[in-house]
Amino acid sequence: MNVYRIEAPVRSFSGESVGVQFTKGTAFVDDSRKENRAALEYFRRQGYGVALSDGKTDEERAQELVTGAPVQREPLAPVVLFDSADHSVEEVLAHLGEADCGEAERVLNAEAAAKKPRVGITSKRDEILAAKTPAAPAGDDTKGSGA
Fold it and tell me: Residue 55: its pLDDT value, please?
């Protein structure tokens, strides 16, 4: 697991963006979950500063200050992203069925950019992404209400 330091374009920003809490323009995100990896990609696309952090939590830094010894951690296995080129159409579609919206979009974009995109996957792009996108709540039709 890697921990990234995120710097917002507006240095005074304190609040939440794509599920990540910022304080005075800075946030920390690890890449252990799909949602976090999607947030990291969003921040990169939007021009936020994204850099590897030392990965230590505030508690670990405090412990090191008190004890004078570095905190020992178990090494984690590296995160390996799903590569559609290594799988059959059926396996890719099964993965897409389980993936969140960000992962589905990443895999579909990679498939579309391949030298030989597979129609059995790319032709289902809209259908797959529509199934991943939350629908508007029922009864939320404000058109014509004068609101």
Answer: 60
